[in-house]
Design goal:
Low-confidence stretches: none
Shape: globular
Order of helices and strands: HHHHHHHHH
Structural class: mainly alpha
Largest sheet: none
Helix content: 55-70%
Radius of gyration: 15 Å
């Protein structure tokens, strides 16, 4: 499974633009972390990280009660998706109880919820431009649990701990990744 195939599959199975945007945001954050890990000498294939980001929620809208198990079963039966991507997709949903034993699975879990917070912070700006979101504003919104209440702050913190990164550094990595992939206005 390559990025083009994953993108096409995501489009086929995800009707809403907002969930598509979320998966593209997760892809951007996953790519940024793949480059980060590679820079530290770890094996981290950017394409593999991108595919995991694009596919992690592709089944959510059409099969919400079976997510992510339905998606993983579909990918296993209909594609050549790498086993480590399948494990990461299962592990991104804490309720599955799937252990996150690889850097890929830990990274997907860590960036998933945080991208939602960054997107929400952008949408409340008058210009709705993620490129104008500052870390200080993001941190303030993170502490305000009424803001983007659907974002699980405990999982964001747990994700940073599992990665072994400081929460501020984690927020910076995800924010910059989303800013870098934002389309020009």
């Amino acid at each position: 499974m390559n990025r083009e195939q994953a993108y096409a599959l995501m489009l086929d199975h995800t009707p809403s633009e907002s969930l598509r945007r979320h998966m593209l945001n997760v892809e951007a954050a996953m790519r940024a972390y793949a480059r980060h890990w590679a820079g530290l000498g770890e094996a981290a294939d950017e394409e593999t990280y991108a595919v995991a980001g694009l596919l992690h929620d592709f089944d959510y809208e059409l099969h919400p009660d079976e997510h992510p198990a339905w998606g993983v079963a579909y990918l296993r039966g209909h594609t050549d998706t790498a086993p480590e991507v399948l494990d990461a997709i299962m592990g991104h949903a804490a309720f599955t109880g799937t252990p996150r034993t690889t850097r890929l699975s830990q990274t997907l879990f860590a960036v998933d919820e945080l991208t939602g917070l960054v997107q929400a912070a952008a949408l409340v700006r008058p210009d709705k431009d993620v490129r104008q979101v500052e870390l200080s504003s993001l941190k303030k919104r993170f502490r305000n649990r009424a803001f983007a209440a659907g974002v699980n702050r405990d999982e964001v913190e747990q994700g940073a701990r599992e990665l072994g990164v400081d929460l501020d550094a984690h927020m910076t990595t995800v924010l910059r990744a989303m800013q870098d992939m934002a389309p020009d206005a």
